[in-house]
Amino acid sequence: VHYNLAVIYARKRQFHEAIASARRFLETTGTGSEAENLKTLIDQCNHEIEQAIEI
Prior knowledge:
This protein is mostly helical. It is built from three helices and no strands.
């Protein structure tokens, strides 16, 4: 559930919510391809947040 929520929030550009959902998923499942995908998603969301601050 948290994996799908993270992806949906990211697509809607709700980056803080996406990061929170991804971290909830990683608390229970820290390995595997889904975990790696969410780690990348967190990095991308953080980058988008930083870009928004600079504008």
